[in-house]
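Minutes, project check-in

Agenda point 3 was the complex the collaborators sent over. CS summarized: four entities, 856 residues total, and the question is how they sit relative to each other. Sequences were read into the notes so everyone works from the same version.
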Amino acid sequence: MSHLPEHLLVGYRNFMKGRYAAESERYVSLAREGQAPETMLIACCDSRSAPETIFDSGPGELFVLRNVGNLIPPFEPDQEFHSTSAALEFAVDVLKVKNIVIMGHGRCGGIRAALAQGGKPLKPGDFIGKWMSLIHTAAAAVASTSVMTATERETALERISVRYSLNNLRTFPQIKAREEAGELTLYGAWFDISAGELWAMNRETGDFERPSLD
Amino acid sequence: MSHLPEHLLVGYRNFMKGRYAAESERYVSLAREGQAPETMLIACCDSRSAPETIFDSGPGELFVLRNVGNLIPPFEPDQEFHSTSAALEFAVDVLKVKNIVIMGHGRCGGIRAALAQGGKPLKPGDFIGKWMSLIHTAAAAVASTSVMTATERETALERISVRYSLNNLRTFPQIKAREEAGELTLYGAWFDISAGELWAMNRETGDFERPSLD
Amino acid sequence: MSHLPEHLLVGYRNFMKGRYAAESERYVSLAREGQAPETMLIACCDSRSAPETIFDSGPGELFVLRNVGNLIPPFEPDQEFHSTSAALEFAVDVLKVKNIVIMGHGRCGGIRAALAQGGKPLKPGDFIGKWMSLIHTAAAAVASTSVMTATERETALERISVRYSLNNLRTFPQIKAREEAGELTLYGAWFDISAGELWAMNRETGDFERPSLD
Amino acid sequence: MSHLPEHLLVGYRNFMKGRYAAESERYVSLAREGQAPETMLIACCDSRSAPETIFDSGPGELFVLRNVGNLIPPFEPDQEFHSTSAALEFAVDVLKVKNIVIMGHGRCGGIRAALAQGGKPLKPGDFIGKWMSLIHTAAAAVASTSVMTATERETALERISVRYSLNNLRTFPQIKAREEAGELTLYGAWFDISAGELWAMNRETGDFERPSLD
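CS then shared the predicted structure for the full assembly.
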């Protein structure tokens, strides 16, 4: 009986012979001195949207929260268990990151589910439905836009939800305060796996644009 | 005004010239056919614990949930927003993954916070404290073991919390059902960045052991 | 009637044809000039924990005390027969060793016995119980940590007992004096036979770490 | 600051590349199945008298007690900490060894100390004197034998002390019982490093003889 799936063991062996062997000093130093990432990246669980791959990031570079649909709920200081809020608090108050990037992506199953249900919260016990209902107003508006194709509606809601989550980030008092003090910058991005296209949100207009890569 | 942090743009350029150029067919195919990962991996947000790096995983291989301390709360079918439960539901009910791996890691800031508070839930508005209080009973037991060093207590709690979260996974009816039907296997792992050490949980005893890599 | 077990005679013949033949000058010289080992090594009687094997040591290199659980009792200048104290006195006052290393090991039967009895001293005539009760406070603390597996509790106590014995070494006046004068260094180590893993105690933190072997 | 003496790290590296690499299956199996040595060997701490070297023994073969002068005190079921008795109890009652071998050696510093003090117990705090006073009657007798050379007196007392300790072994009820039941055999041996000479005690006469090695 193996204690890990075989494909992970194969991958780990490659890692140790390759990347770890090449960068072991950096790993040892990160262990000794602790992490100090400048950027928090919020992405989807989707297997085609790994931030460390897309941004070719090394160890210690990105503090990464991943949930379905890369959503941020609004600030709610109650007694519930909020994994998203705990991660934000750790990034902002403890690590004092300089950047938070929310990255949506194409062909997102969570967004598709939100559109399919037309923005209505689902029955109790349907965790995806409940979770995606965070954007149900926007989903309802987009779902009714019958002149757009299905793919256009998905892309639209994927980008709307990034802007929606950026707004929710600003409901956290310490995020708002640090942004106003110029100590923290909030960014939006959207990635599509097919052509490897990365789009960055224009922070003045909210539009998504291809960044210049020169 | 740049619309993305400079280090991400640099990394994205590397990705496009390197990995994407080499594997573009796989990316196009993953976009066309959708994701079908066999493994869900639950890891910490920590910047030194990226699953795709440690397991040298390609696009489409891992469905990844990342939260502080890689914790799974118990099943609670209420009306709250449960990002963790939504991700589990997506992985199990929609993607029908064959494996779920919970990977803890050394030097975990969330675990350290849980030990520092001695297992007591913190005041409202302290999201890290509230979130980590999921393991407060274990944290209290370990925190009182004064004959262990601080690092030994952390390592112990990091591994205990993996076992705790594996138990909570089994409180989700569909996970329990699929595991009993032999359609899903649950795994535990622990990674320490310094020496690149990966430990796999022995599924019979709960102990963490170095996997044979031959 | 043979006067030695056959396996020892076979081994001795191998020794004479192999190692002794190759190093006979060193043996002759060690006989003529006496021993002058720089290092005293305190290890368990366990048949899987032979210091000369693990450290590939030649004749004259290690002054070796072996008892169950590699324990050092505190300094007690009474009229009893103290084999451990006599060995320390010989190593420090007569041989003037520069290093004392206490090496614990995995799967230690003595430690297991200490945990099984929950730290309570046993009845008179139970020598293992009485001897291992030297660490009964630590054993009781570890034994009650039910969130750890049996193996995790054993490993924890194996390492705790090395630190405990190092502290007891310092209750011997001449050891304390020579250490403070910079003439003697005290070390802790832990070996596990399965993967041949050696861990060295960090002398500042008390943690056990894999030594770099480069 | 290194956490182990350099000569031990060098030796450990040799062990891993050499013996461990060649015998790793045996090590793994010994970890999984536990130790089951047939022979307990009681030897001196002296750096020139390592049983695993002299008998070319592999892992798992010898359960080894080492103290100054390879002495066994008589059975004393009191409340003191008896490291020697604990080791005997473990070997006989737990491991159920078939053989116990007491091996004295030439040029033994403990024996020399016993002769120098003429068999008189020393002042409190002199642990070597107190420990070696176990054989003070024999030491006094030999010390007064002025027609023997110093080396002859040492060799004589080294061998007398092996017989004395063999007798003490028989004061332990379970050792006496198992020997009488034919389940345990007691042996004496004496090794001199210079010429690599091993002598075995004739169990009928008590004489030390060179064993036939053919």
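Noted in discussion: DSSP finds eight helices and six strands in chain C.
Follow-up: revisit at the next meeting once the mutant set is ready.
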